[in-house]
Write a structure and sequence with these properties.
Blueprint lengths: L2 E3 L3 E7 L3 H6 L13 E8 L5 E11 L2 E7 L3 H12 L5 E4 L5 E5 L8 E3 L8 E5 L9 H11 L36 H10 L4 E8 L14 E4 L2 E10 L2 E7 H9 L4 E3 L2 E6 L19
Parallel strand pairs: 3-8
Antiparallel strand pairs: 1-7, 2-5, 2-6, 3-4, 4-5, 7-9, 8-9, 10-13, 10-15, 11-12, 11-14, 12-13, 14-15
């Protein structure tokens, strides 16, 4: 049962009589769909429909919620929530003494929450606080995210640069298309109904180690001939995550054009749990 503390994550507690109503009108997920014992992906968007903050959310009490978010985004997140608060009976507090633990395989410890971004058979869970043997290192956590196509901001995409569809939030329960209005909802709903999503998270696989660098901001392009189809995010040995233009990948595959990263041949696959394929360049075409 591998597990580790994620020091780059924080918990923001949202409490108060109006907490549920307040969040329901702001974020992409449907709070009514969150079950006890699970944590779901969600996002707070810009009015233009791009992800301003991505985080995980779970219920803490009858009137409270826990937001599991990047530590370096915590202050900005609370400021943004405060901007929308107005007269709502809601409070925000950072749980600085609560470690965020991720684990997988085996039996989850008491109090753990199923991470709904992953397929059920992966047995990935989240635990807020002590109560687990910590016997894994960060590369192992990166590897399981890469294997299952689970992207996170910072390591895989920049905030305010992608739509929820780009990172498969329309497929993992991070967006609810029937719950009603929230910030950016009109744009996201239009993309869904018109099928205009053209970027998706893919897993990149190579026969040799993929290039890494310690230089901040460095990106390695995935190329089809002289055309870029995307760039690498989290790298784990011979595999990586990437957000790719599915139409360009489909065109390359149809024309038998090799895909490469820094000259290294690679293959791209869309996560099986998403039910998508590169067929005909349409990212919303399900696998046969």
């Amino acid at each position: 049962m591998p597990a580790l503390i994620l020091p780059d994550r924080n918990i923001v507690q949202v409490d108060g009589a109006d907490a549920g109503h307040f969040l329901q009108n702001l974020i992409t997920a449907n709070l009514d769909a969150i079950k006890p014992g699970e944590v779901r992906p969600t996002a707070l968007l810009t009015p233009q429909g791009k992800i301003l903050f991505d985080f995980l959310i779970s219920k803490s009490t009858d009137s409270g919620y826990l937001c599991d978010i990047r530590a370096d985004q915590t202050a900005d997140f609370i400021r943004r929530l405060t901007l929308y608060k107005l007269r709502a009976a809601v409070t925000f507090q950072t749980a600085t003494d609560t470690p965020v633990i991720a684990g997988w395989d085996g039996n989850a410890p008491e109090g753990a929450l199923s991470d709904m971004r992953f397929p059920q058979e992966a047995h990935v869970w989240r635990l807020y606080g002590i109560g687990s043997v910590l016997d894994a290192e960060r590369p192992a956590w990166d590897a399981i995210r890469v294997a299952h196509g689970v992207a996170e901001s910072g390591s895989d995409f920049a905030l305010s640069d992608v739509f929820p569809h780009d990172v498969l939030m329309d497929k993992n329960g991070g967006v609810d298309f029937r719950k009603g209005c929230y910030v950016g909802q009109e744009v996201v709903s239009r993309m869904q109904h018109r099928g205009t999503a053209r970027r998706r998270v893919a897993t990149v696989t190579a026969e040799s180690e993929l290039p890494v660098t310690s230089e901040p901001g460095t990106e390695f392009d995935i190329r089809a001939g002289d055309k870029s189809v995307g760039s690498l995010g989290t790298i784990s040995g011979t595999s990586a995550l990437a957000i790719v233009r599915t139409d360009r990948v489909a065109d390359a595959l149809a024309k038998d054009i090799a895909l490469t990263v820094e000259g290294i041949p690679v293959t791209l696959t869309l996560p099986g749990w998403a039910g998508l394929s590169f067929n005909n360049g349409d990212p919303n075409t399900p696998d046969a």
